[in-house]
Amino acid sequence: MKLKSLKIPNFLKNLYVQVIIGMILGILVGYFYPNIGISLEPLGKGFINLIKMLITPIIFGTLVTGIVGVRDFKKIGKLGIKALVYFEIMSTIALLIGIIVAEVIQPGHGINFNFNVISPTSNTNNSINGVDFLLHIIPNTVFSGFVNGDILQVLLVSILFSVGLIKLKESGEVVLNVIDKVTKVFYEMVRMVTYLAPIGAFGAMGFTIGNHGIEALQNLLTLILSVYSTCGVFVLIGLGIVAKISGFNIIKFLIYIKDEILLVLATSSSEVVLPKIMEKLEKLGCEKSVVGFVVPTGYSFNLDGTCIYLTIATMFIFQAFNINISLNDKLLIFLILLITSKGAAAVTGGGFIVLSATLSEFHQIPIESLTLILGVDRILSEVRAITNLIGNSVGTVVIAKWENLLDKERFEKELNK
């Protein structure tokens, strides 16, 4: 008698479902068998280290292609300049809101994470300021920042390299194409690493609960609610006000793009709906040239949901270590995220990579501390991807209206169907 081969249900093939299962199993092991849970720490740390090794080349490639891509302001014209200004204003507001929410709610307060548990050799001296800080940004060699994982030094090299490519004009295109292709290879590496997320989540949750008790779940739940509620408020009130000023209702607009929102919810990536949302915005009455420039550019420069997530998550980890960071450090977090958040939505897990890059610049905290939120990152990726989609869609309509490139009659007809 032949045994029928076991068929895996389709829903179990979904990475999101696998991560949830890994989280639940990790919680159960950490709660009922704390010692075993603590011993699972290498699974979480291993996943973090895989992410860590990809940080600097992805940040470099993303920034270079992004900066050089908008090098010719005469070519992109008034439309492009207005779009970039709008993106920076909205990103700044999102970052500031995230910092304020984290300060008020204090989602990481009470975890009391132990330095010695994760990294007894971690450097707690981070008093660099003024001239020393500026000198610290300059690496000893072009490759020092990449080797040491110093994101500020990588940012400096990226900017200088981008300016050099712009100066070369057409002859720099060959180099830019190579960098673009190499960066895509690293994106594929991230996608491969992401398949290990369920194992990483299992180890991270097992370690967190085993070491800190079931009470740590309350902090993680507070983190999730903080990010979700902040994104919700930003969309309904922040973008709602922008929409109101531009003459349309945010609720009606959300209903119009509901199919794309649901698709992002299922995939945790706003990139998958890029062709569909562009087609839908054109159907709504936005000029094709506006949609063709604003939507793809917004995927690099207008990541409102990612900005909110990054600030709250960064502050959460500082709070978990009971570190009261200064106003200067908060300003530094803001400035780093204002730059590194560009392009974070290019691949699923991009937000987690940027978070890793940001924390690597603050030597009070070992990067392995990311195991704290690794287990719930996949849950948080959904809301930031949806917020990014909505922010870029609203931005496209607003900019089209500014430029008188919006068919108002068709817009009203489609929106009120």
Descriptive labels:
Proton glutamate symport protein, 75% helix, 21 helices, globular, 0% strand, 417 residues, mainly alpha
Summarize the structure.
The protein has 417 residues and is mainly α. The protein has helices spanning 15-32, 34-39, 41-52, 55-69, 73-105, 115-118, 130-137, 144-148, 151-168, 173-194, 197-212, 216-245, 250-256, 258-267, 274-284, 288-301, 304-320, 327-340, 350-360, 371-402, 408-415.
Topology:
Blueprint (H helix, E strand, L loop, with lengths): L14 H18 L1 H6 L1 H12 L2 H15 L3 H33 L9 H4 L11 H8 L6 H5 L2 H18 L4 H22 L2 H16 L3 H30 L4 H7 L1 H10 L6 H11 L3 H14 L2 H17 L6 H14 L9 H11 L10 H32 L5 H8 L2
Q: Specify the helix fraction band.
A: over 70%
- Report the structural category: mainly alpha
> In the CATH classification, which architecture applies?
Orthogonal Bundle
Percent of residues in β-strands: under 5%
- What would the CATH topology be? Proton glutamate symport protein
Q: Low-confidence parts, pLDDT < 50 over ≥5 residues?
A: 115-129
Q: How many domains make up the 3D coordinates?
A: 1
CATH class: Mainly Alpha
Give average pLDDT, whole number.
Answer: 80
Give the beta-strand count.
0
Oligomeric status of the shown chains?
Answer: single chain
Rg value: 22 Å
The helix/strand order is HHHHHHHHHHHHHHHHHHHHH
Number of helices: 21
Overall geometry: globular
State the separation between the terminal residues, measured CA to CA: 60 Å
Major sheet size, sense and barrel closure: none
Task: Describe, in plain words, how this protein is organized in 3D.
This protein has one domain (12-415): Proton glutamate symport protein (Orthogonal Bundle). The N and C termini lie far apart (60 Å). With 417 residues, it is mainly alpha-helical. Helices cover 75% and strands 0% of the residues. 45% of the residues are buried. It has helices at residues 15-32, 34-39, 41-52, 55-69, 73-105, 115-118, 130-137, 144-148, 151-168, 173-194, 197-212, 216-245, 250-256, 258-267, 274-284, 288-301, 304-320, 327-340, 350-360, 371-402, 408-415. The model is unreliable at 115-129 (pLDDT under 50).
